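Dear colleague,

Following up on Tuesday's group meeting, I ran the structure prediction for the four-component complex that the binding team flagged. I've pasted the input sequences exactly as they went in, so you can double-check that nothing got truncated or mislabelled along the way. The structure tokens for the whole assembly follow below. Feel free to forward this to whoever is handling the docking comparison.

Inputs:
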Amino acid sequence: MKPTLQAVADAVGVSRSTVSNAYSRPDQLSATLRERILDAARQLGYPGPNPTARSLRRGFVGSIGVLFTSQLSYAFTDPFAVRFLAGVGAAAERHGTSMLLVPLPPAVTDARRAVENAAVDGFCVYCVADEEWALDVIRQRGLPFVSTAARDDAGADERFVGIDERAAARSVAAHVAGLGHRRVALLADSVLPDAPAGPLTVAGVDQVPHPTTRGRLSGFADAFAEVGLDWAELTLVNVPGNSRPAAAAAIAGLFDQPAPPTAVLAGSDVLALGVLDALAARPAHDRPAVSVTGFDDVPEAAAAGLTTVRQPAEEKGRIAAELLLDPPADAAAGHVLLPTALVVRSSTGPVPRS
Amino acid sequence: MKPTLQAVADAVGVSRSTVSNAYSRPDQLSATLRERILDAARQLGYPGPNPTARSLRRGFVGSIGVLFTSQLSYAFTDPFAVRFLAGVGAAAERHGTSMLLVPLPPAVTDARRAVENAAVDGFCVYCVADEEWALDVIRQRGLPFVSTAARDDAGADERFVGIDERAAARSVAAHVAGLGHRRVALLADSVLPDAPAGPLTVAGVDQVPHPTTRGRLSGFADAFAEVGLDWAELTLVNVPGNSRPAAAAAIAGLFDQPAPPTAVLAGSDVLALGVLDALAARPAHDRPAVSVTGFDDVPEAAAAGLTTVRQPAEEKGRIAAELLLDPPADAAAGHVLLPTALVVRSSTGPVPRS
DNA sequence: GATCCAGTCTGTATCGATACAGAGACTAGC
DNA sequence: GCTAGTCTCTGTATCGATACAGACTGGATC
């Protein structure tokens, strides 16, 4: 068994408090005694104060949780999520805080338990799907958190960092509409829970549960409404999961229909890249000239020439962690909207006249 | 203040133990009492057992640390590290364990403290630079760990997952040597601590402190020795930090020298991609036909047509975590060598005759 | 010579749970 | 009717530290 602080105290002949002070409050004892204590500790093989015991007594842990409301392994697959993590990491580094990545089991009961059991001082919640239950647990625990998806029921005091999803989506859709496209497909991840891959009819965009997806789809719809296109005239395509192959599979059939879309607006770059994959997979002579747009501007987008909306991924993570670790006194400052920018590249062009 | 387990016990009129059991050992009490307890807990707003207190009493935490002996933010920049993390994450997910990413302050004393204070049950050590001090701290704490770099002084009982760096490097170098290249530059990260960027003279490859770098350089040297080229005849180029821009900057000047290298063997794909960047940055008419090889086969390498050595990144992370979380009874099984494969793409070719 | 003070160190209470032995109550078996 | 065994639940000890109030020492101050 590893020696405890008590053992060191006994060896030196001082009280536990003094040994504790030798580690945590060097100004509370003389330098010589401190040296004697540290020497004895070294000799005994004392590894220093037990982090868990220390956390218990102190009342804080020194690490923040990052919650992906999805498989943890997904987080490392999505380049946007990776940049976000990098941002969180940079802020954590600055604050001398660790990051705890908590994998969530598929069953909600187990997932709740996982969030309840995480030894952290707060959470950055990266929203992939509906995360209301997770926020409930966190509130219940009385822990601070920062979320990255606008929610309908957000309390005024809840911290948030994100973008104006709707306006950003509108900007890229307006670009596409401006190019003359009127047969348009909108591609999004998990439009409705458990919906199958492929075209999907949804009465109105307000039926879409996930706020981020809803926001982006609304923005797309806004831009086309302005050129006289109804929601019902847009083709909505569901992708179960934000991945290139899933997107490619979901979109593939669409191009063989009678009046195929001339433009595909994807809810993320990953999905858009999947669409490009699907197109590239067709023989050159049978490859329709489709305009494709993404969302996020991940590193891969530039290489693929993807027209997209840029949002600062790393910044988002960094600010999320900063809001958590160093909360602004002013509640309004806890609500950060980041700028976005339309990035036009080669993946969009005018409607081919055929 | 949040209510404690005691408060719930008092409210229901049972002992603390029983409430504890209601959460952690449901089979130890009747279903009806358990329901009463959980109801009361809900009513009081009891958030469930405090994770820290539970860890202290139980003697384990339920999370593993991932240690990058470099800036944490670096980890998210290096695509190989990200794949490694994904693998660790997948294994952690399977075991219901969290991952703690511990940022290390630049000063070694502070870094030691950070490792001492991490509340984890063990470490996966991803070796970027010299990490002996970190392993010392972990040993001192009596925690299990898995390292990913072969070390000279590894105890027989210490777990490890990695590749035969030397043999793998040799395979790609043999390919280059086979193409006839004899004016060759070897590019590596942090060949010597604090060495400047650019060509560097090192008496022998055994002078290189970092085992991974040394292993790869040795492999390169092996292959060229076989075709009669001495270590001294190879140009060694140091890059301070494993990044594309750093590599580009370190190599840039080399191509303007009297007898420029016809091949550059990089110690990692990231460095190799940096070399390609440096070449691409030159005007087309002044762009030497240089063969470039990498190491790792990160996702970006395929797109760039980079000849490289593949090592299974995700697998490495997954196995590292598995070895930690589910240690094999047999000590020998704790030492895993992964397969590697030479991947020849378009970035290498025969020496241009001119 | 009393007072004050800064500098050191100690002792006790506490952080919030879980482990484990064991006490009662009840059912079974013979 | 007695022993054994099963279910529930309780009580005490313990995990390993830190906080905080206070005790002691030895000068400096007036």
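The first helix of chain A runs from residue 5 to 12.

Cheers,
M.
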